[in-house]
Amino acid sequence: MPMHAEYLALMAAMLNGTIGIFTRFGLQAGLTPSALAFYKCFIAFAIIAVYCLSKPKRRAECRALSRYWHHYALLSFFGIFCLYFFETWAFSEASIPLVAFLTYAAGGATILMAALFLGERLTKFKVAAFITILMGVYLIFLFEHGISGSMLGIILALLGGLGYALFIFLGKLLNVGGGLAVLCWLFGFGSLYLLVPFLLDGFMMPSLAAMGAIMALVLLPTIGGFFLTTKAITHGDASKVQIIETSDPLFASVFALIIFGDGLGPYGYLGAMLILIGLMLSLKRTR
After folding, report:
1. Confidence check: pLDDT of 286 > 60
2. What gap in Å lies between CA 1 and CA 221, rounded to an integer?
3. What are phi and psi of 149, to 5 degrees?
4. How many CA atoms are closer than 13 Å to the CA of 199, on its beta-carbon side?
5. Tens of pLDDT along 159-213?
6. Would you say 73 and 176 are in contact if contact means Cβ atoms under 8 Å apart?
7. Span 141-146, mean pLDDT?
8. N-term to C-term CA, the chain
9. 143, 267 in Cβ contact below 8 A?
10. Alpha-carbon distance 42 to 133, whole Å?
11. Facing residues of 69 across strands?
């Protein structure tokens, strides 16, 4: 796996780590979870679509990808709808660190699926890395009393994480590639999927404060995070990308501490250290 793919995945994790704080700002500004999920996806789609249509080369790329529309429809359901809908809803039911850690804890299925169906080697470093990361998540979940949430929030976070894990796996299996043209298709289908629960909950216009949170979500994790993730999948192993991006909860916890004062206790910091060790193990190369 080229090193630049590993750095792309790490940068994507940093951007994705801002989802929790901006989602909380949006929810505090009066948006429902379904409205926030729809607006951030649709606005991201509109921005990318306008840019691609204005560039002849990008326009040609989007047109060429139309033959694979069914691939993007499937990927968008798991990587956009499931992740955005369930994760945003989970943030309204549980704390930022809890949702962030549980979302990526469900991604462990990627390593097994990649080994069974993609022919990727299940090396000792991959196994050790993910076990170490799971140990860190377990410590924080078990002993960190400041991290709490309802059972509904826990289930929603796990559903969002499972959707994202399937997106990582299917993205590599179908070899969809990366770039703005791919994002245009993904966010286009995602907007259609997310429009359904948005309309069922009742149409609502965002306030000025809510729009600020939406635009931050659009520019940082939605466009930036997905762009880097698809690029990392293209150039690297699906399981390794998933392992590296499991550091997302660590960044989310740091941001939550800085913005909202959500601190960690001794076991929480021990768990965070184990996650960092797991991240370093995932970068270890095997001859």
Report:
1. no
2. 23
3. 180, 165
4. 6
5. 998 898 889 888 888 888 777 899 899 999 999 999 999 999 999 999 999 999 9
6. no
7. 66
8. 12
9. yes
10. 33
11. none
Phi-psi region of 30 (alpha: psi -120 to 50; beta: other; left: phi over 0): left
- Nearest-Å Rg of the Cα atoms of the chain is 18
Q: Could you tell me which of 132, 136, 145 has the C-alpha nearest to residue 270? A: 136
- How many Å apart are CA 12 and CA 248, to the nearest integer? 8
200, two tokens: 């069922």
At 148, give phi and psi (nearest 5°).
-140, 165
Sign of CA dihedral 236, 83, 35, 59: positive
* Residue appearing with tokens 């690297």: 236
> Bigger pLDDT: 177 or 242?
177
| Mean pLDDT for all residues in the chain | 85
Please, which residues bridge with residue 94 across strands?
149
What is the distance between the alpha carbons of residues 258 and 255, in angstroms, rounded to a whole number? 5
Could you tell me which residue, 126 or 207, shows the higher pLDDT?
207
Query: Which DSSP string corresponds to the chain?
Result: --HHHHHHHHHHHHHHTTHHHHHHHHHHTT--HHHHHHHHHHHHHHHHHHHHHHSHHHHHHHHHGGGGHHHHHHHHIIIIIIHHHHHHHHHTTB-HHHHHHHHHHGGGHHHHHHHHHS-----HHHHHHHHHHHHHHHHHHHH-TT--B-HHHHHHHHHHHHHHHHHHHHHHHTT---SHHHHHHHHHHHHHHHHHHHHHH------HHHHHHHHHHIIIIIIIIHHHHHHHHHHS-HHHHHHHHTTHHHHHHHHHHHHH-----HHHHHHHHHHHHHHHHHT----
Q: What are phi and psi of 29, to 5 degrees?
A: -80, 0
CA 279 to chain centre: 17
Q: For 85, list phi and psi in degrees, rounded to 5.
A: -65, -55
